[in-house]
């Protein structure tokens, strides 16, 4: 509708290509979405309406929210990942020290101290990698775990944040110690 030369929008949401990431807020009745259209949206669960949004710098593939509900970690097709403030949707930092291609999975540890990042990253050693970042120290990279032969598709943390299990496109299920970075066989 156009009135007095101004357009009124009645509907806003993802509009182009694919929606890839969804993260539910740990305390509020809202969730966040990202996709190839570069939209980062905050949705109200009760009304099913878009509450807030911003446009990202590049297409996104995955999203995670910190257990305290303050930070959003957003993985992208380029291998970059970003940290956004979950309340203001302002970019806090951009990181490019992990996967060389698309970030397929990103997950905070239950304690909120660590962020695991995995995806498509076949290195010269022939393995895909999961990178662990210390969220309490400005998302500094602290571990590089290897073992998958194919792209990482899912990461889960143990409840004590000491171990991760991960899946790959080749149906591998691997376990790693966070403290040592070693694969547990």
Walk me through this protein's architecture.
The chain has 185 residues and is mainly beta. Helices cover 0% and strands 52% of the residues. The chain is built from no helices and 18 strands.
Summarize it.
The chain has 185 residues and is mainly β. It has strands at 2-3, 6-7, 19-24, 30-35, 39-44, 50-55, 60-65, 71-76, 81-85, 91-95, 103-108, 114-119, 128-134, 140-148, 152-157, 163-168, 173-177, 183-184.
List the helices and strands and how they pair.
Layout: E1 2-3, E2 6-7, E3 19-24, E4 30-35, E5 39-44, E6 50-55, E7 60-65, E8 71-76, E9 81-85, E10 91-95, E11 103-108, E12 114-119, E13 128-134, E14 140-148, E15 152-157, E16 163-168, E17 173-177, E18 183-184
Antiparallel strand pairs: 1-2, 3-4, 4-5, 5-6, 7-8, 8-9, 9-10, 11-12, 12-13, 13-14, 15-16, 16-17, 17-18
Strand count, sense and closure of the main sheet?
A: 4 strands, antiparallel
> Which structural category fits the helices and strands?
mainly beta
**Total count of helical runs of at least 4 residues:** 0
Summarize model confidence as the mean pLDDT: 90
Strand order in the largest sheet: 3-4-5-6
Low-confidence stretches: none
Helix content: under 10%
DSSP strand tally: 18
Secondary-structure element series: EEEEEEEEEEEEEEEEEE
End-to-end Cα distance, whole Å, is 62 Å
